[in-house]
Amino acid sequence: MISSTQDTSSASAIISSLNAKSNSASKTETNAPDTEDRFLKLLVTQMKNQDPLNPMDNAQVTSQMAQLSTVTGIDKLNATLQALSDSMSIVQSLSATSMIGHGVLIPGSAITLKDGKAIGGIELTQPADSVKVLIQDAAGNTVSTLQMGPQKAGVTALAWDGQTDAGTPAINGTYKFSVEALRAGDKVEANALTFGMVNAVTPGVNGATLDVGSAGSVAMSAVKQII
């Protein structure tokens, strides 16, 4: 895991890992000559033991050589692509460390109220004429309704001041919220986004994973907006 107090050492470790991946790719490429040697030995053996009355023609030899070339080229291409993929994962992890200490919006319906402040977000697949956010307590009771009016497609952050529909302040804690959006009277697909602070980054073969506190660990690709 990469934290904000170990960026320098983590960078060195990741660079060393990158070099190791490159060396691994080089070793993979050395397997190609072995494949060629085996193929050529088989071809020579086949030609030595061919039927004198029905020898191989030039077209057969050319076809087999072409197959060898294709297989060798694919092996080298696969090794190069794997090395490139590994390098991209490492670069992504390095880049992700700059997100430590920043707030992000990720898929989720939780919103945390503390001292009259709560942050969340919505994601619309298309523009909406009206957007309404319903904030509910643990029992499922709606405590506050936020009228956000018309909104464009995409991600929009929202803020709740902790005031209930009754005009009283809500107590600190975690609430759930849902989004209702309409366009010309028809429902618009709308997703709730939860807010969290990035505490650390963990590199992985499938990309970087972010530690977003109470929201848990999420893939970097899940981040909808950095605040």
Q: Would you write up a description of this structure?
A:
This protein is 35% helix and 33% strand. It has helices at residues 7-29, 31-48, 58-96; strands spanning 2-3, 103-107, 110-113, 118-124, 128-136, 142-151, 154-160, 173-183, 186-187, 190-197, 200-202, 209-211, 217-219, 225-226. It is elongated. Helix 1 packs antiparallel against helix 3 and helix 2 (31-48) packs antiparallel against helix 3. Strand 12 and strand 13 form a beta hairpin. It has three helices and 14 strands. It has two domains: 2-99; 103-197, Immunoglobulin-like (Sandwich). The model is unreliable at 2-15 and 24-30 (pLDDT under 50). It has a five-stranded antiparallel β-sheet with strand order 7-4-10-2-14, with no helix packed on it. With 227 residues, it is of the alpha+beta class. The longest helix is centred in the middle third of the chain and has 39 residues, at 58-96.
